[in-house]
Write a structure and sequence with these properties.
This protein is α/β, with parallel strands linked by helices. The chain has two domains: 2-158, 3-Layer(aba) Sandwich (Collagenase (Catalytic Domain)), CATH 3.40.390; 171-296, Cytidine Deaminase, domain 2, CATH 3.40.140. It is built from eleven helices and ten strands. The protein has helices at 13-30, 45-56, 82-87, 105-115, 119-134, 142-158, 171-182, 222-232, 254-263, 282-285, 292-296; strands spanning 2-7, 36-43, 64-68, 89-90, 95-104, 195-200, 205-209, 238-245, 268-273, 276-281. The strands form two sheets. Strands 1, 2, 3, 4 and 5 form a five-stranded mixed β-sheet that branches. Strands 7-6-8-9-10 form a five-stranded mixed β-sheet. A hairpin with a 2-residue loop joins strand 9 and strand 10. Helix 1 packs across helix 7 (171-182) and helix 4 crosses helix 5. The radius of gyration is 20 Å and the shape is globular. The structure holds tetrahydrodeoxyuridine. Tetrahydrodeoxyuridine is lined by residues 187, 190, 192, 194, 210, 212, 219, 221-223, 250, 252-253, 256. The site of tetrahydrodeoxyuridine has 14 residues, from helix 8.
Amino acid sequence: MILLWEIDTPIDPALLSLMQAAADCALHMEGVTRPCAVSVRLCDDDAIHVINREHRGVDRATDVLSFPTVSYPEGVTAGQADKLLRMEWDDELDACMLGDLILSVPHVLAQAEEYGHSPQREAAYLLVHGICHLMGYDHIEENDKRRMRAMEEKILNAVGMSRDEQASISDETLLALAISARERSYSPYSGYAVGAALLCADGRVFQGCNIENASFGLTNCAERTAMFKAISEGATEFTTIAIAAEKSAPWPCGACRQVLNEFAPDIRVIVTWDGHVDQAPLAQLLPHGFGPKSLAE
Ligand code: THU
Protein backbone atom coordinates (compact mmCIF):
# COMPACT_ATOMS: atom_id res chain seq x y z
CA MET A 1 0.00 0.00 0.00
CA ILE A 2 1.36 3.40 -0.91
CA LEU A 3 0.88 5.81 2.01
CA LEU A 4 1.07 9.44 0.95
CA TRP A 5 2.06 11.14 4.20
CA GLU A 6 1.32 14.73 5.11
CA ILE A 7 2.89 15.25 8.52
CA ASP A 8 1.98 18.53 10.25
CA THR A 9 2.59 17.20 13.77
CA PRO A 10 5.80 15.27 14.50
CA ILE A 11 5.48 11.67 15.59
CA ASP A 12 7.92 8.88 16.59
CA PRO A 13 9.17 7.51 13.21
CA ALA A 14 8.89 3.95 14.57
CA LEU A 15 5.10 4.47 14.58
CA LEU A 16 5.23 5.34 10.88
CA SER A 17 7.04 2.06 9.99
CA LEU A 18 4.47 0.12 11.97
CA MET A 19 1.61 1.96 10.25
CA GLN A 20 3.12 1.08 6.86
CA ALA A 21 3.26 -2.61 7.82
CA ALA A 22 -0.32 -2.47 9.16
CA ALA A 23 -1.55 -0.86 5.93
CA ASP A 24 0.19 -3.52 3.80
CA CYS A 25 -1.35 -6.18 6.01
CA ALA A 26 -4.83 -4.68 5.70
CA LEU A 27 -4.80 -5.10 1.92
CA HIS A 28 -3.43 -8.63 2.22
CA MET A 29 -6.06 -9.70 4.77
CA GLU A 30 -8.83 -8.15 2.67
CA GLY A 31 -7.54 -10.07 -0.37
CA VAL A 32 -6.92 -6.96 -2.50
CA THR A 33 -4.17 -7.78 -4.98
CA ARG A 34 -4.28 -4.52 -6.94
CA PRO A 35 -1.79 -1.83 -5.75
CA CYS A 36 -3.62 0.77 -3.65
CA ALA A 37 -2.81 4.16 -2.16
CA VAL A 38 -4.16 6.21 0.74
CA SER A 39 -3.24 9.73 1.77
CA VAL A 40 -2.58 10.06 5.50
CA ARG A 41 -2.43 13.41 7.24
CA LEU A 42 -1.08 13.56 10.79
CA CYS A 43 -2.15 16.72 12.54
CA ASP A 44 -3.11 18.24 15.91
CA ASP A 45 -6.54 18.56 17.54
CA ASP A 46 -7.22 22.07 16.19
CA ALA A 47 -6.68 20.95 12.59
CA ILE A 48 -8.82 17.80 12.85
CA HIS A 49 -11.51 19.86 14.64
CA VAL A 50 -11.75 22.24 11.64
CA ILE A 51 -11.98 19.32 9.17
CA ASN A 52 -14.59 17.56 11.31
CA ARG A 53 -16.70 20.75 11.45
CA GLU A 54 -16.36 21.67 7.78
CA HIS A 55 -16.81 18.22 6.24
CA ARG A 56 -19.07 16.45 8.75
CA GLY A 57 -20.75 19.29 10.67
CA VAL A 58 -19.38 17.89 13.95
CA ASP A 59 -17.97 20.69 16.10
CA ARG A 60 -15.22 18.87 18.03
CA ALA A 61 -11.81 17.26 17.64
CA THR A 62 -11.64 13.49 17.13
CA ASP A 63 -9.06 10.71 16.74
CA VAL A 64 -9.43 9.69 13.08
CA LEU A 65 -11.45 10.80 10.06
CA SER A 66 -11.77 8.84 6.83
CA PHE A 67 -12.96 10.01 3.42
CA PRO A 68 -13.31 7.08 0.99
CA THR A 69 -13.18 7.63 -2.79
CA VAL A 70 -15.07 4.41 -3.61
CA SER A 71 -18.78 4.10 -2.83
CA TYR A 72 -19.23 0.43 -2.06
CA PRO A 73 -22.69 -1.15 -2.40
CA GLU A 74 -24.32 -2.36 0.83
CA GLY A 75 -22.39 -5.29 2.34
CA VAL A 76 -19.55 -5.12 -0.21
CA THR A 77 -15.93 -4.43 0.78
CA ALA A 78 -12.78 -3.80 -1.27
CA GLY A 79 -11.90 -7.51 -1.58
CA GLN A 80 -15.06 -8.07 -3.64
CA ALA A 81 -15.01 -4.77 -5.51
CA ASP A 82 -12.18 -5.02 -8.02
CA LYS A 83 -14.20 -3.23 -10.74
CA LEU A 84 -14.90 -0.27 -8.44
CA LEU A 85 -11.25 -0.12 -7.36
CA ARG A 86 -10.15 -0.11 -10.99
CA MET A 87 -12.22 3.04 -11.55
CA GLU A 88 -10.02 4.80 -8.97
CA TRP A 89 -6.79 3.91 -10.79
CA ASP A 90 -4.28 6.77 -10.72
CA ASP A 91 -1.72 6.62 -13.55
CA GLU A 92 0.80 8.75 -11.72
CA LEU A 93 0.68 6.63 -8.56
CA ASP A 94 0.30 3.35 -10.46
CA ALA A 95 -2.25 2.43 -7.80
CA CYS A 96 -5.96 2.77 -6.93
CA MET A 97 -6.65 5.75 -4.70
CA LEU A 98 -8.80 4.52 -1.79
CA GLY A 99 -9.18 7.90 -0.08
CA ASP A 100 -7.90 10.17 2.68
CA LEU A 101 -7.27 9.62 6.36
CA ILE A 102 -6.68 12.30 8.99
CA LEU A 103 -5.23 11.30 12.37
CA SER A 104 -4.78 13.48 15.42
CA VAL A 105 -1.35 12.75 16.95
CA PRO A 106 -2.34 14.09 20.44
CA HIS A 107 -5.39 11.76 20.36
CA VAL A 108 -3.17 8.76 19.52
CA LEU A 109 -0.95 9.45 22.54
CA ALA A 110 -3.76 10.36 24.96
CA GLN A 111 -5.90 7.34 24.05
CA ALA A 112 -2.94 4.97 24.37
CA GLU A 113 -2.49 6.20 27.92
CA GLU A 114 -6.21 6.12 28.69
CA TYR A 115 -6.62 2.51 27.45
CA GLY A 116 -3.34 1.41 29.07
CA HIS A 117 -1.65 0.18 25.92
CA SER A 118 1.31 1.34 23.84
CA PRO A 119 1.24 4.27 21.39
CA GLN A 120 2.19 1.59 18.81
CA ARG A 121 -1.04 -0.34 19.39
CA GLU A 122 -3.13 2.86 19.32
CA ALA A 123 -1.50 4.26 16.15
CA ALA A 124 -1.86 0.90 14.39
CA TYR A 125 -5.47 0.55 15.60
CA LEU A 126 -6.56 4.01 14.41
CA LEU A 127 -4.86 3.62 11.04
CA VAL A 128 -6.38 0.16 10.54
CA HIS A 129 -9.81 1.46 11.63
CA GLY A 130 -9.56 4.26 9.05
CA ILE A 131 -8.33 1.93 6.30
CA CYS A 132 -11.21 -0.47 7.03
CA HIS A 133 -13.61 2.45 6.40
CA LEU A 134 -11.78 3.19 3.12
CA MET A 135 -12.24 -0.50 2.21
CA GLY A 136 -16.01 -0.31 2.71
CA TYR A 137 -16.47 -1.38 6.34
CA ASP A 138 -18.66 0.56 8.77
CA HIS A 139 -20.03 0.26 12.29
CA ILE A 140 -23.53 1.71 12.21
CA GLU A 141 -25.54 -1.55 12.27
CA GLU A 142 -24.60 -4.15 14.91
CA ASN A 143 -23.84 -6.79 12.24
CA ASP A 144 -21.57 -4.50 10.25
CA LYS A 145 -19.85 -3.43 13.45
CA ARG A 146 -19.02 -7.05 14.34
CA ARG A 147 -17.65 -7.63 10.86
CA MET A 148 -15.52 -4.48 11.01
CA ARG A 149 -14.15 -5.27 14.48
CA ALA A 150 -13.28 -8.82 13.39
CA MET A 151 -11.37 -7.49 10.38
CA GLU A 152 -9.56 -4.88 12.49
CA GLU A 153 -8.46 -7.52 15.01
CA LYS A 154 -7.37 -9.88 12.23
CA ILE A 155 -5.12 -7.18 10.74
CA LEU A 156 -3.75 -6.06 14.12
CA ASN A 157 -3.04 -9.67 15.15
CA ALA A 158 -1.22 -10.20 11.90
CA VAL A 159 1.20 -7.34 12.62
CA GLY A 160 1.73 -8.49 16.21
CA MET A 161 -0.47 -5.72 17.63
CA SER A 162 -3.26 -7.78 19.14
CA ARG A 163 -4.94 -6.63 22.36
CA ASP A 164 -2.38 -8.36 24.57
CA GLU A 165 0.43 -7.15 22.27
CA GLN A 166 2.10 -10.53 22.85
CA ALA A 167 1.11 -12.50 19.79
CA SER A 168 3.89 -12.66 17.27
CA ILE A 169 3.18 -12.52 13.59
CA SER A 170 2.94 -15.67 11.48
CA ASP A 171 5.27 -16.70 8.66
CA GLU A 172 2.41 -16.17 6.25
CA THR A 173 2.04 -12.52 7.30
CA LEU A 174 5.79 -11.92 7.30
CA LEU A 175 5.92 -13.24 3.73
CA ALA A 176 2.99 -10.99 2.76
CA LEU A 177 4.86 -8.02 4.24
CA ALA A 178 7.97 -8.93 2.22
CA ILE A 179 5.82 -9.15 -0.93
CA SER A 180 4.34 -5.70 -0.19
CA ALA A 181 7.80 -4.23 0.47
CA ARG A 182 8.84 -5.53 -2.95
CA GLU A 183 6.33 -3.12 -4.55
CA ARG A 184 8.57 -0.29 -3.35
CA SER A 185 11.74 -1.76 -4.91
CA TYR A 186 13.87 0.65 -6.93
CA SER A 187 15.44 -1.71 -9.46
CA PRO A 188 15.39 -0.06 -12.91
CA TYR A 189 18.77 -1.59 -13.91
CA SER A 190 18.35 -5.26 -13.05
CA GLY A 191 14.54 -5.37 -13.18
CA TYR A 192 14.85 -7.84 -10.28
CA ALA A 193 12.62 -6.47 -7.52
CA VAL A 194 13.15 -7.83 -4.01
CA GLY A 195 11.28 -7.18 -0.74
CA ALA A 196 12.16 -8.19 2.81
CA ALA A 197 10.42 -8.22 6.19
CA LEU A 198 12.58 -8.62 9.27
CA LEU A 199 10.92 -9.78 12.51
CA CYS A 200 12.52 -8.59 15.75
CA ALA A 201 12.30 -10.44 19.06
CA ASP A 202 10.29 -7.51 20.48
CA GLY A 203 7.60 -8.05 17.81
CA ARG A 204 8.51 -5.16 15.55
CA VAL A 205 8.76 -5.74 11.81
CA PHE A 206 11.04 -3.73 9.53
CA GLN A 207 10.43 -3.86 5.79
CA GLY A 208 13.03 -3.21 3.11
CA CYS A 209 13.45 -3.32 -0.65
CA ASN A 210 16.44 -3.35 -2.98
CA ILE A 211 17.61 0.11 -3.99
CA GLU A 212 19.78 0.33 -7.09
CA ASN A 213 21.94 3.14 -8.35
CA ALA A 214 23.12 4.39 -11.75
CA SER A 215 26.65 3.65 -10.54
CA PHE A 216 25.54 -0.01 -10.10
CA GLY A 217 28.02 -0.82 -7.29
CA LEU A 218 26.10 1.25 -4.73
CA THR A 219 23.09 -1.04 -4.88
CA ASN A 220 21.65 -2.01 -1.50
CA CYS A 221 19.83 -5.34 -1.22
CA ALA A 222 16.39 -5.63 0.38
CA GLU A 223 17.74 -7.60 3.36
CA ARG A 224 20.35 -5.00 4.22
CA THR A 225 17.83 -2.17 3.83
CA ALA A 226 15.57 -3.89 6.38
CA MET A 227 18.46 -4.70 8.74
CA PHE A 228 19.94 -1.19 8.61
CA LYS A 229 16.52 0.34 9.25
CA ALA A 230 16.07 -1.94 12.26
CA ILE A 231 19.52 -1.31 13.77
CA SER A 232 19.13 2.44 13.35
CA GLU A 233 15.78 2.29 15.19
CA GLY A 234 17.36 0.46 18.14
CA ALA A 235 16.34 -3.13 17.45
CA THR A 236 18.90 -5.65 18.73
CA GLU A 237 17.43 -9.16 18.42
CA PHE A 238 16.01 -10.80 15.34
CA THR A 239 14.19 -14.07 14.83
CA THR A 240 13.16 -14.33 11.17
CA ILE A 241 13.66 -12.60 7.84
CA ALA A 242 11.26 -13.17 4.93
CA ILE A 243 12.48 -12.31 1.43
CA ALA A 244 10.33 -12.10 -1.70
CA ALA A 245 11.13 -11.99 -5.41
CA GLU A 246 9.08 -12.82 -8.46
CA LYS A 247 10.66 -15.48 -10.65
CA SER A 248 13.55 -17.11 -8.80
CA ALA A 249 14.41 -17.89 -5.16
CA PRO A 250 15.89 -14.77 -3.54
CA TRP A 251 18.33 -16.51 -1.22
CA PRO A 252 20.42 -13.70 0.30
CA CYS A 253 23.63 -12.77 -1.51
CA GLY A 254 26.99 -13.25 0.23
CA ALA A 255 27.15 -9.67 1.48
CA CYS A 256 23.69 -9.93 3.06
CA ARG A 257 24.53 -13.27 4.69
CA GLN A 258 27.56 -11.60 6.26
CA VAL A 259 25.50 -8.61 7.51
CA LEU A 260 22.76 -10.89 8.90
CA ASN A 261 25.48 -12.94 10.64
CA GLU A 262 26.80 -9.81 12.36
CA PHE A 263 23.53 -9.19 14.20
CA ALA A 264 21.59 -12.44 14.06
CA PRO A 265 23.65 -15.61 13.51
CA ASP A 266 20.66 -17.72 14.56
CA ILE A 267 18.10 -16.03 12.32
CA ARG A 268 15.73 -18.11 10.19
CA VAL A 269 15.57 -17.13 6.52
CA ILE A 270 12.36 -17.72 4.53
CA VAL A 271 12.20 -17.04 0.82
CA THR A 272 9.23 -16.85 -1.52
CA TRP A 273 8.97 -16.57 -5.29
CA ASP A 274 6.28 -17.41 -7.81
CA GLY A 275 4.07 -19.08 -5.17
CA HIS A 276 6.94 -21.18 -3.73
CA VAL A 277 8.26 -20.98 -0.18
CA ASP A 278 11.52 -22.37 1.20
CA GLN A 279 13.50 -21.74 4.36
CA ALA A 280 16.85 -22.38 6.03
CA PRO A 281 18.68 -21.21 9.13
CA LEU A 282 21.38 -18.63 8.38
CA ALA A 283 23.97 -20.96 9.96
CA GLN A 284 23.32 -23.33 7.06
CA LEU A 285 23.60 -20.55 4.46
CA LEU A 286 26.85 -19.24 5.95
CA PRO A 287 28.76 -22.19 7.43
CA HIS A 288 31.90 -21.34 9.40
CA GLY A 289 30.89 -17.66 9.24
CA PHE A 290 33.24 -14.96 10.45
CA GLY A 291 31.54 -12.71 12.99
CA PRO A 292 31.96 -10.63 16.15
CA LYS A 293 32.75 -13.79 18.14
CA SER A 294 35.69 -14.62 15.88
CA LEU A 295 37.32 -11.31 16.77
CA ALA A 296 36.58 -11.70 20.47
CA GLU A 297 38.20 -15.12 20.50
N1 THU B 1 19.12 -8.48 -4.48
C1 THU B 1 18.53 -8.36 -3.25
O1 THU B 1 17.95 -7.32 -2.94
N2 THU B 1 18.61 -9.39 -2.37
C2 THU B 1 19.19 -10.59 -2.65
O2 THU B 1 19.22 -11.44 -1.80
C3 THU B 1 19.77 -10.83 -3.97
C4 THU B 1 19.84 -9.66 -4.88
C5 THU B 1 18.97 -7.37 -5.43
C6 THU B 1 20.22 -6.60 -5.67
C7 THU B 1 19.97 -6.05 -7.07
O3 THU B 1 19.21 -4.87 -6.95
C8 THU B 1 19.09 -7.08 -7.74
O4 THU B 1 18.59 -7.89 -6.69
C9 THU B 1 19.84 -7.94 -8.75
O5 THU B 1 21.02 -8.43 -8.21
